[in-house]
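Tokens as discussed.
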């Protein structure tokens, strides 16, 4: 069991428990010694050793892990670190630090067990609950029944709903009980103690119930404890002493700790019953006034602590009856007045602490401490003393420690300390002393420690230290000394001298030569320029020397040779250029820092062989020298040579004993093979921020262990844990070219083979890949096939025809191209991009897997170009001016999966172009000049999934006849689709039936060039140009005027009688949901032009762990919702609907959002993902989500495993620790801007319509309010799939080379349109547009946009109801192609002047002003806003 110097467990309550620890020393045997810092066990570190989960935070906090000699570590910090990391051990862990004592870490008290080698001999047990969330309701501590001799029990971090009598019935014979839940730090609930919980514990002597967030105590709680002597209720919220008196605590109480509560006052009779009280702790409360006589009856009181309160003065008679008092602590108040005689007649007083108050010299006089003959410690620091009378300490002959620091003293009168013959520590730091009077230390014959730092001393008189030879430690740093005072020559026993942060330039008086016993010398932060041989000539005992932060340019050779006991030297931050001959003869030197100098040459021969730690960073070293090849002789363990100019390292550059090798921020370009092959102790090598473009695998290979076949590296923490770990390597910040020789970096980083170091910063390593050298790719985003090497010619070992023409197994790169391969030759890329080629080379290797020929001038793809290339999977010929694909030109590409032919000059496909491409999955033909495509062109592409035809000149290609079974991604927009009735109807029907596969269905429009004015009436359109009877043509001006007049007349007539024109009849068999379907009635037919369907309400649905709510609400949401452009987020725990089943809420949110943002943290993986309801609802929702983005918060991607990893295989990943993570998230979730509906212009959108439900209507908000929709207002299950749209995961599309941009989608909603002349009420048209980016201050969607006409009204609940006059069928938004709007104000459909808004497609939106009669209809329900 390791031990370390830590604060005792009593320090949990802020230091006030020291008395309790002293009185109950049997609970913690070594916690009450001295000043409160004693060796104590570190049970947490020991318990971690048996767990599968390591607590790195606890290791750092616990001195037992890496630093066994670290100074004070507060117990509370240690427990907090453990709790934050939620230690979950596979089994209960128990340790026996001493005979009869057991310390156990259990998950909970209900299922835990206490394992001891000798249960019958166990007298003390400490139980720590690792699962702090577990609430113990009916616990009976049955795990302690087999310990008959148990006397002391301590419960830590165990949460109780109530501590009952039954809980303690198995431990009724205890003498000491401590229950600390620390609920005030983690929970808002308080620990409740039943009134009879201690009734069976008649032998209890010490009770600790501190740190339990208690506001009150049950009356009679302690009345059945007749032997109770020690009571600790600190760290709670008790505000009145009456709460303690009512518990019935007996008069035998000796120690009472009420510190860290909320006490505001104490009465004169509050402690009168405790006549046997010896220690009273009232620190860290809110006491502002104390009354005379409040300590009446406490004649046995020995220690009183009222520190850290708000007291301004003390009652004059407060201590009259406490004659046995030994310690008074009133520090940390605001006391300005000290009543005369307050401390009089206290013959036993040994310690007074009045520091941190506002006492002036007026109250510190001779009579203040008169008669205190036994006083040992007096602390007056942190007051406002500016002077002291010479006789103030006259009666303190026993005083040993005096602290006058941090006052305003300017002079010290002679003879002030004459009577302090036993004083050994005097602290005068932080005053305003500018000079010391001769003889002011007279009488201090045993003074060993003197602190004069942080004053204004410029010199010291030679007689100041006369007859004072006992001083061993002198601190004079941060003064204004220009030289080492000559008066120090008298201090022949001086062992430690600190004169740092002065203006000393030299030891002009030779003072140091007169101090033969000096062991520590600190001259840092001065103005020394030279260190001569005489400087340290007689300092043979010096072991630590600090000369840092000076201006030293030269150190004489041999200046340190006589200081043979030197163990640590600091010369950093000077101006040294050479260290030759300075340290090689120092056999005891272990620690050397010469960093931040100007050293240009370094060799291992310059340092002693026993040196363990060397810091030479921030110099100008170009080479790590090892002229004598002593890397196996020296014992150096840590070398920091970062920020130098080293360009090459090899095996001789790194000592064999090295553990930490830091060579970051150099100019390293080469690491020779075998550099680390003999470094068996290596723990970490830092090669980051260098110029490494390549790092061979054998350069970082570690030695093989002869016994196990792999290297094992043990760190200091590993010894404590009893395990071994990988050596670690840091490589970030290097310009790596990840070729085929670097593939080990990816493979070895994922393996457990300890012959290769683990790349610790792999998430920050960036690579330049050969096929994209201008872009940096994170190492974690690469795959083995990305690690390529170029080649000109390659012949496999089994190939015997390489010296002959037309050798199939020869790999020869075509002229003018660049070829790459991976280590296994499974990837073979031929890159001929932008090489100004006019034909595709016929010398492409037979084993090529990808060919890039884009950006050339290839007019024709010749026949049989790719014969025999059966392994090509990717072919890019885009942007190469291709006009023709000859017959059988692609023959032989049986494995081709991706073919890019976009941005060429192709005009016609005759049906044979793609024969034989049975494996083709993606075909890109957009941005060509295609006019004609034979119907059989794509029929034999059985595996086709992606087909892009947008931005061509197609007018009548029967896209509805495509029979490819796997086709899920089609683009058709920006063509010249015919508006003729038959093809337009067929195309509209195709979009209605399979529109989910057409990614740009919302922007597919027909061209009006061949559209008849009236489909089906048989009447030709009126002439636009007329001729006279003689056949002569009218003058041009007259003809133009006539044409304009006729056109205007026709427009007026059509607009005036548009209601009659839109009364077409639909046959019963025609599905009403198919826009553009033909209905024959009397020879008439009509094609409906409808607006696109509604887009999703939210940009992203955010799901996360409940424990990460604060991060999401205060960090994530503001970053994305307040950005420009802002994203609309649906947060699971803020906006989700309140449903009985979580799956319904998640489903609604996913369907109402375009993408899903999943915040994965350790909380998410350990809690939410382990819950069945949460996991089941998300599994189904994430599978149907149209795109998932993962934000890693505090975890690596490797932490995502199992089913979740499979589910997120195609997701986009962003780490919170990345550079600009929010920008990356916004790029993955772009904000979509909606536009107004009802385009009516040159092109007509071809989409089917569906009936709008009542809850699809927008909400009318009062002025000044902005819509804050919740997920419950999103589309229902039926609505969510109304469009039937199925997106292809963008990750499956090729990237890089002219990849296609995905189109935007508007936010519009339409209703089906009934074209019959007699329109029923249920077939009337109700149309509106939702503009998510616009705040609806008034019912714009219902009034301004024409949704509520003069003949329409609101229903009882604010729903849009049928008009009172059903004979007038409304036709506001769904119009036949020939329909116009009337300009007659008397027309029923007229609403005033029409405002036109240009749409995204160049059309014009018809915008109507609101009707004043409808302004009062503003009470639409929030649930109607979609």
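Sequence:
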């Amino acid at each position: 069991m390791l031990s370390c110097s830590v604060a005792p467990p009593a320090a949990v309550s802020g230091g006030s428990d020291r008395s309790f620890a002293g009185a109950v020393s049997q609970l913690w045997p070594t916690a009450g010694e001295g000043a409160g810092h004693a060796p104590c066990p570190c049970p947490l570190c020991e318990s971690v050793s048996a767990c599968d989960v390591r607590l790195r935070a606890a290791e750092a906090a616990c001195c037992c892990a890496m630093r066994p000699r670290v100074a004070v570590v507060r117990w509370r910090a240690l427990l907090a670190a453990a709790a934050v990391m939620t230690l979950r051990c596979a089994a209960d862990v128990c340790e026996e630090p001493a005979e009869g004592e057991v310390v156990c870490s259990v998950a909970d008290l209900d299922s835990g067990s206490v394992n001891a080698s000798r249960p019958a001999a166990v007298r003390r047990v400490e139980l720590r609950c690792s699962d702090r969330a577990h609430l113990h309701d009916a616990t009976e501590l049955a795990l302690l029944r087999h310990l008959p001799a148990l006397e002391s029990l301590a419960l830590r971090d165990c949460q109780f709903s109530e501590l009952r009598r039954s809980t303690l019935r198995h431990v009724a014979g205890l003498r000491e009980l401590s229950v600390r839940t620390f609920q005030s730090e983690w929970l808002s609930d308080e620990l409740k103690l039943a009134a009879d919980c201690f009734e069976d514990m008649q032998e209890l002597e010490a009770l600790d119930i501190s740190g339990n967030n208690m506001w009150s105590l049950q009356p009679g709680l302690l009345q059945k404890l007749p032997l109770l002597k020690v009571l600790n209720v600190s760290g709670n919220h008790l505000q009145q002493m009456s709460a303690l008196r009512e518990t019935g605590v007996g008069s035998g109480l000796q120690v009472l700790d009420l510190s860290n509560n909320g006490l505001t006052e104490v009465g004169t009779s509050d402690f009168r019953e405790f006549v046997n009280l010896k220690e009273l702790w009232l620190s860290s409360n809110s006491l502002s006034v104390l009354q005379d006589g409040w300590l009446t009856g406490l004649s046995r009181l020995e220690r009183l602590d009222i520190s850290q309160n708000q007291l301004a003065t003390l009652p004059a008679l407060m201590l009259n009856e406490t004659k046995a008092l030994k310690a008074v602590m009133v520090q940390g108040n605001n006391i300005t007045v000290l009543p005369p005689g307050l401390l009089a007649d206290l013959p036993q007083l040994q310690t007074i602490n009045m520091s941190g108050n506002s006492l002036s010299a007026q109250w510190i006089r001779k009579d203040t401490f008169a008669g205190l003959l036994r006083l040992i410690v007096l602390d007056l620091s942190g007051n406002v003393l500016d002077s002291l009378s010479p006789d103030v300490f006259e009666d303190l002959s026993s005083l040993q420690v005096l602290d006058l620091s941090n006052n305003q003293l300017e002079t010290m009168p002679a003879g002030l300390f004459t009577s302090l013959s036993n004083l050994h520590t005097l602290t005068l730091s932080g005053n305003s002393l500018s000079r010391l009077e001769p003889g002011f230390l007279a009488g201090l014959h045993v003074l060993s420690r003197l602190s004069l730092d942080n004053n204004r001393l410029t010199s010291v008189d030679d007689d100041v230290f006369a007859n004072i030879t006992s001083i061993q430690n002198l601190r004079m740093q941060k003064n204004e000394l220009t030289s080492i005072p000559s008066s120090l020559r008298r201090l022949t026993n001086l062992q430690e001298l600190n004169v740092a942060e002065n203006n000393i330039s030299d030891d002009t008086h030779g003072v140091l030569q007169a101090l033969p016993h000096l062991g520590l010398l600190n001259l840092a932060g001065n103005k020394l320029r030279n260190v001569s041989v005489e400087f340290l000539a007689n300092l043979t005992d010096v072991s630590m020397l600090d000369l840092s932060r000076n201006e030293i340019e030269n150190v004489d050779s041999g200046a340190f040779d006589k200081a043979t006991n030197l163990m640590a030297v600091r010369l950093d931050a000077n101006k040294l250029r050479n260290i030759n001959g300075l340290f090689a003869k120092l056999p005891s030197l272990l620690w050397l820092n010469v960093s931040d100098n100007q050293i240009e040459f370094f060799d291992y021969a310059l340092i002693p062989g026993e040196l363990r730690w060397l810091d030479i960073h921030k110099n100008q070293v170009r080479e790590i020298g090892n002229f004598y090849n002593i890397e196996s002789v020296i014992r150096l363990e840590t070398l920091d040579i970062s920020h130098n100019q080293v360009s090459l390292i090899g095996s001789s550059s790194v000592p064999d004993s090295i553990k930490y090798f830091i060579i970051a921020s150099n100019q390293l370009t080469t690491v020779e093979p075998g550099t680390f092959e003999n470094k068996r102790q290596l723990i970490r090598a830092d090669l980051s921020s260098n110029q490494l473009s390549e790092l061979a695998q054998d350069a970082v290979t570690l030695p093989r262990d002869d016994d196990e076949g792999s290297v094992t590296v043990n760190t200091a923490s590993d010894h404590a844990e009893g395990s071994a770990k990988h050596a670690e390597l840091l490589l970030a910040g290097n310009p790596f070219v990840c070729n085929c020789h670097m593939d080990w970096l990816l493979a070895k980083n994922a393996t457990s083979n300890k012959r290769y170091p683990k790349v610790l910063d792999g998430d920050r390593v960036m690579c330049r890949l050969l096929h994209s050298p201008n872009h940096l790719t994170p190492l974690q985003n690469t795959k083995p096939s990305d690690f390529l090497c170029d080649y000109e010619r390659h012949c496999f070992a089994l190939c015997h025809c390489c010296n002959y023409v037309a050798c199939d197994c020869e790999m020869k790169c075509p002229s003018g191209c660049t070829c790459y391969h991976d280590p296994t030759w499974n990837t073979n890329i031929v890159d001929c991009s932008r090489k100004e080629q006019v034909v595709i080379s016929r010398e492409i290797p037979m084993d090529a897997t990808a060919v890039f020929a884009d950006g050339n001038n290839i007019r024709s793809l010749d026949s049989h170009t790719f014969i025999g290339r059966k392994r090509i999977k990717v072919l890019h010929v885009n942007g190469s001016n291709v006009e023709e694909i000859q017959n059988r030109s692609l023959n032989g590409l049986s494995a081709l999966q991706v073919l890019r032919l976009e941005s060429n000059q192709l005009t016609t496909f005759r049906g044979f172009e793609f024969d034989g491409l049975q494996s083709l999955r993606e075909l890109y033909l957009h941005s060509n000049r295609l006019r004609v495509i034979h119907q059989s062109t794509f029929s034999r592409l059985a595996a086709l999934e992606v087909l892009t035809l947008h931005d061509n000149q197609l007018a009548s290609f029967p896209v509805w006849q495509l029979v490819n079974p796997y086709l899920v991604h089609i683009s058709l927009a920006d063509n010249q689709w015919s508006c003729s009735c038959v093809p337009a109807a067929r195309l509209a029907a195709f979009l209605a039936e399979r529109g989910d596969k057409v990614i740009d269905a919302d922007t597919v429009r027909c061209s009006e060039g061949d559209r008849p004015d009236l489909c089906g009436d048989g009447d030709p359109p009126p002439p636009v140009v007329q001729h006279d009877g003689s056949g002569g043509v009218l003058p041009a001006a007259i003809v133009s005027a006539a044409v304009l007049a006729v056109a205007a007349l026709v427009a007026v007539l059509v607009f005036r009688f548009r209601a009659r024109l839109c009364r077409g009849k639909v046959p019963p068999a025609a599905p009403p949901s198919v826009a553009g379907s033909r209905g024959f009635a009397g020879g008439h037919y009509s094609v409906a032009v409808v607006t696109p369907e509604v887009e999703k309400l939210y940009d992203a649905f955010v799901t996360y762990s409940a424990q990460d709510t604060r991060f999401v609400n205060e960090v994530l949401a503001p970053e994305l919702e307040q950005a420009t452009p802002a994203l609309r987020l649906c947060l699971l725990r803020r906006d989700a609907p309140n449903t009985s089943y979580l799956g319904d809420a998640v489903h609604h949110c996913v369907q109402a959002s375009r993408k899903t943002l999943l915040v994965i943290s350790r909380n998410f993986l350990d809690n939410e993902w382990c819950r069945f309801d949460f996991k089941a609802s998300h599994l189904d929702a994430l599978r149907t989500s149209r795109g998932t983005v993962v934000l890693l918060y505090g975890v690596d991607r490797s932490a995502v495993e199992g089913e979740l990893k499979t589910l997120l295989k195609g997701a986009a990943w962003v780490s919170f620790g990345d550079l600009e993570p929010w920008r990356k998230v916004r790029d993955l979730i772009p904000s979509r801007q909606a536009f107004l509906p009802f385009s009516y212009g040159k092109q007509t959108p071809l989409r089917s319509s569906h009936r709008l439900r009542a809850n699809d209507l927008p909400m009318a908000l009062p002025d000044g309010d902005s819509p804050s929709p919740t997920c419950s207002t999103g589309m229902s299950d039926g609505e969510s799939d109304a469009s039937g749209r199925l997106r292809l995961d963008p990750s499956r599309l090729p990237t890089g080379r002219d990849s296609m941009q995905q189109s935007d989608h508007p936010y519009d909603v339409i209703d089906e349109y009934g074209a019959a002349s007699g329109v029923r009420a249920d077939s009337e048209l109700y149309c509106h547009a939702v503009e998510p980016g616009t705040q609806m201050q008034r019912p714009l969607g219902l009034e301004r946009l024409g949704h509520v006409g003069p003949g329409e009204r609101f229903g009882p609940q604010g729903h849009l109801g049928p008009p009172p006059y059903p004979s007038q069928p409304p036709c506001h938004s769904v119009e036949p192609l020939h329909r116009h709007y009337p300009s007659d104000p008397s027309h029923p459909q007229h609403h005033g002047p029409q405002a036109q808004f240009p749409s995204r497609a160049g059309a014009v939106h018809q915008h109507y002003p609101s009707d004043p009669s409808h302004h009062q209809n503003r009470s639409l329900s929030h649930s109607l806003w979609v």
